[in-house]
Amino acid sequence: MVCEQYHVPFVTPTATNVRVTMDPNRKLYAFRACFIDPFQGLAGATFDYNNLHAKTAAVMFDETNAYSSGLKDNFVKAFTQLGGKIVAQMAYTTNDTDFSADLTQIAKLNPDVLYLPDYYQKVSLIGGQARNLGVKSTFMGGDGWDSSDLNFAVMNGGYFTNHYSADDPSPMVVKWVSDYKAAYGSVPDALATLGYDATLIVLQGIRSAQSTDPTKIRDAIQNLNGYQGVTAKFSFGPDGNPVNKPAVVLQINGPAKKYNFITEVAPS
Known about the structure:
Layout (H helix, E strand, L loop, with lengths): L1 H4 L4 E3 L17 E3 L4 H15 L4 E7 L3 H17 L2 E8 L7 H10 L3 E4 L3 H13 L5 E4 L17 E4 L8 H14 L5 H20 L4 H9 L4 E2 L4 E2 L12 E7 L4 E8 L3
Parallel strand pairs: 1-2, 3-4, 3-5, 5-6, 6-7
Antiparallel strand pairs: 7-10, 8-9, 10-11
Helix pairs in contact: 2-3, 7-8
């Protein structure tokens, strides 16, 4: 990483792969505002098993995409450890567009949940084909679903883990959503919100360090203790990741083209 090479403090808003800050040792100048894939996979599995009372799940994932395959691995591990059964794991590649063979098999297996750890474009495509082929499973996914371009009609009723809810009544979230809507005419998604939090973290690091020295700013960020952002109160562990940052579970409300807040899943 160039920032590590030149000792430039770096806070990624949205990179959830563990290797961003640990590869395999700690990258001293790298931090993140988001949670990591192992926790997001665990949060999705925990919600499915405990809240939806799902006992069986199938997974479709992009084997050529680290985000998708990483979430798959962690969801499968967590769901199995909780006592659930994975009835199918179907791999595809980024350029695939026809999923009928895999979805026909999944329809026959009739799992309680179909976990789709991919981005909104591919999820919308798979979801439409799934329903047309008779898949009745509840759709579940990750933060890659968060987009106004998601096919809300197709994905109606599905759930996904995310970094915050725009419906959170806390004053900082309310102000952030109001200010963003006034400036851009839309509700801020998780990517915009995490970008804002990452910026706040860097600025607070500079203020706390009272210096432009990169190492002092890096140390100040590392030592933040409960700094209030929009998506969480930020303190950082030795791995550069936020400590005790929860995930929220949102449900697709197709008719309203919005996400409804369902619950929060905290790290165990």
